[in-house]
């Protein structure tokens, strides 16, 4: 490896230490994790520490699925995280489809109403909707590196 500016290496090490999955897929997060880990090899010197650091950066929903497994080899972790990513994506799809489907009761009630209204007109009621935008757990602030100190833990 040719000489690389120490400032560049320090910046990449800092990126690695602060790396979180965020909006990346688990596969994208893994790719970035492996790419940046070469700049912080002292922080992932064993398979166990590499697995711990990888899990630490996962989103909470996936971390829960992967964290229950006792995995100490990065290759095995990589296989399991792909399963967890798929399960989390399926769960989000199920939730989104539930939120976006109108209930049949609401449809029947609306079709049975006549033009005559009793009580108060429904147009005066405030509309409340549960949109398809559901909020999911994203990255945890636990373990995030906030200081300028480049430390592995």
UniProtKB/TrEMBL annotation:
Domain (Retrotransposon gag): residue spans on this chain: 2-60
InterPro entries: Retrotrans_gag_dom
Amino acid composition bias (Basic and acidic residues), ranges on this chain: 82-94
Pfam name, any one: Retrotrans_gag
Residue segments, region Disordered: 82-132
PANTHER family, per database record: DNA DAMAGE-INDUCIBLE PROTEIN 1-LIKE (PTHR34482), RETROTRANSPOSON GAG DOMAIN-CONTAINING PROTEIN (PTHR34482:SF36)
Protein known as: Gag-Pol polyprotein
Organism of derivation: Gossypium australe
Species classification: Eukaryota, Viridiplantae, Streptophyta, Embryophyta, Tracheophyta
